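Bit of a strange request maybe. I'm writing a small parser for structure token strings and I need a real example to test against, not something I typed by hand. Could someone generate the tokens for this chain?
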Amino acid sequence: MTDAVSPATVQADCCVVGGGPAGLMAGFLFARAGLRTVVLEKHADFLRDFRGDTVHPSTLQIMHELGLLDAFLQRPHQKLTRLVGRFGDERLEIASFDGLGALCPYIAFMPQWEFLDFLADHAVLYPNFRLLRRTEANGVIEENGRVTGVAALGPDGPVDIAARLTVAADGRRSTLRKLADFSVVDLGAPIDVLWFRVPKGDAAFDDTLLNVGAGRMVITIDRGDYWQCAYVISKGGIAEVQAAGLPAFRKSVCAVVPGLAEGMQHIASWDDVKLLTVAVDRLEKWDRPGLLCIGDAAHAMSPIGGVGINLAIQDAVAAANLLAGPLADGTFTDDMLQRVCERRLFPTRATQFMQVQLQNRLLAPILGNPDRQPEPPLLMRLVAGLPAVRRKAARMAGLGVRPEHVHSPIGAQPLPSGGISS
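Reply from user aminoacidic:
Good idea to test on real output. This should exercise your parser:
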């Protein structure tokens, strides 16, 4: 897929700003419904590390409903069938997906560039789909108070995309959200996260995902030949960590997960450690005439549970379910946009409520007690000790609140190969 010269004006039924999980899934579904669909992605490719990569059973079910699951699982991934936490020397199984009843009873850890490349490769098979890379929206086009498209800057200069519907899927720092003056509710987050990769080497290691030590917490995600690690710190604590020095950082990580000791020597500088500034916020109203926000542009999620990608995908499916048919048959009206928010706001609120409770009642106390050996919270002991509660925890983690299913129309057929990608 290579970039080509873009015309000064592009006509579309739907313009999606942002080539992340929400944006590409929405673009795929609207194109599948037969609509002229343009997706803008400001980068030349999707090869950016330290992004979420947990594909939950709910998303795998959607891939199945689209007839793409078998091909999707050909992409590199690892499977996690249970959630295990270690608190000091005590190990607890928090949830197991085996009894979930889902088609795919596991979380697939897949690098996000593989996920996005897969969606893009299948979307461009629809002749009515265009992916404009290196093209960044920098303005909203309005007519009589209605958004009728976006102004953007592409590799060959300015380009306007005129569209009946514009979808903002450009992330937690959404340009369109700011330009359209949406009001954001900030729920706060007491943590930030440092992301880094550690080669596996020959050290023995188990499948524990959550590792808790005295005043420290490390997440270890299996990526095949290396561990993708998340070191949780107090909000704004990056300066203090860096001031202590890289050897102290390595030592702190290994104190929680001794099996990482050999691989941590590959962390040669702070350039190998990336800061994720955690935010938890949402819009209470996701639309204005001609414009809809979905994914992180509508709700920034905590990394707790790795649910952000999956909620974004659910938003895209709901948007296509509710809007693609009316757009295709000419019955679309702007008041239909609010139905997406009405459908997805409750799952967002419920998920963020649980995340905030875990942040404030579990993570913050652990980080605030560096001299105290960790013990599993009572809630986790109950979850681990009661099979019925553990099943509910697995359902919440794997399927979430109000999972969506694909009901959007099929109005176009993909080409056997090729497609249009600008």
